[in-house]
């Protein structure tokens, strides 16, 4: 059976390090990209099951990345969780096509529940 893949893109290394550490305790492959410019090509190459993306990042914003993912027929089924501290983040994420939105600061249980609820990846 193919291992599930989670791709995390956030320019905040503290968040990506924490999520990566938690996910590595499970039977999943975790890939982190802190540079949003490089994220889309990596997602196309890796074909992850889940993408966790910050909404507000320099150069390529999370909503643009989500639109590109959902606009690619090969990636349409990728489960996208958008995280953001923005007040209007949920509306922007939903408009872009995100499957779930989680407000920052988030409770780790919310992220784990969102992953379990979406593609059914059991974390921990």
Automatic annotation (TrEMBL):
It comes from the Bacteria. Pfam families: Response_reg. Keywords: Phosphoprotein. InterPro entries: Bact_response_regulator, CheY-like_superfamily, Sig_transdc_resp-reg_receiver. PROSITE patterns: RESPONSE_REGULATORY. SMART domains: REC. Gene3D superfamilies: 3.40.50.2300. Residues 5-119 form the Response regulatory domain. The modification 4-aspartylphosphate is found at residue 54. This is Response regulatory domain-containing protein. It comes from Sphingobacterium griseoflavum.
């Amino acid at each position: 059976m193919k291992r599930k893949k989670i791709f995390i893109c956030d320019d905040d290394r503290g968040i990506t390090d924490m999520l990566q550490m938690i996910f590595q305790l499970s039977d999943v492959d975790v890939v982190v990209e802190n540079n949003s410019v490089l994220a889309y090509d990596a997602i196309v190459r890796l074909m992850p099951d889940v993408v966790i993306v910050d909404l507000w990042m320099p150069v390529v914003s999370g909503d643009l990345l989500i639109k590109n993912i959902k606009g690619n027929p090969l990636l349409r089924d990728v489960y996208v969780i958008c995280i953001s501290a923005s007040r209007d983040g949920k509306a922007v994420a939903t408009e872009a096509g995100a499957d779930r939105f989680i407000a920052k600061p988030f409770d780790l249980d919310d992220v784990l529940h969102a992953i379990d609820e979406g593609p059914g990846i059991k974390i921990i």
